[in-house]
Write a structure and sequence with these properties.
6-stranded antiparallel beta sheet, 125 residues, iron, Rieske Iron-sulfur Protein, 3-stranded antiparallel beta sheet, mainly beta, oxidoreductase activity, acting on paired donors, with incorporation or reduction of molecular oxygen, globular
Length: 125
Amino acid sequence: MTKYLVGKVGDIPPGGKKIVDAGSRSVGVYNVQGRYYALRNLCPHQGAALCTGVTTAFVTSSGPGDFAYECEGEIVRCPWHQWEFDVKTGQMVVDPATRTIAYEVSVEKYDVSVDDEEYIYVHIR
C-alpha cells in the first residue's frame, strides 16, 4: 500500500474537500464533521470527474410535501448526470452495488516537526 500526502489538516475545513493526484489517480478527499474520507474522482457511470460535483445531503420524504435533509455533506452528486454517491463508502445512493473506489485515509503528526500541524494521507493499494 502506498500513501500519498494530501496536505495539512487545516487545508480541508469541516464540510470541505480537496482534489489531489495520488500516483496516476485523481482522488477527492472530504472532511465530514472532522473525519476524512477519500473517493476516486471518477463516476462509474460515464467517467465524469465525480468529486467536482456538488456535495450535499440525502433528502428523505414520508409523503407528498414532506421532506427532510439527512447526512449533510455526505453525498456527492456527479456533475454530468446527477448520480449520487455516499462520500463515506463510495456507494451509489439508489443502487449500492454501483460504486466508485473509497480509499483509506489517515491523519498523522510527526514529533520531530517544527510546526504543530497534522497531515492527511490517502492510502492506495
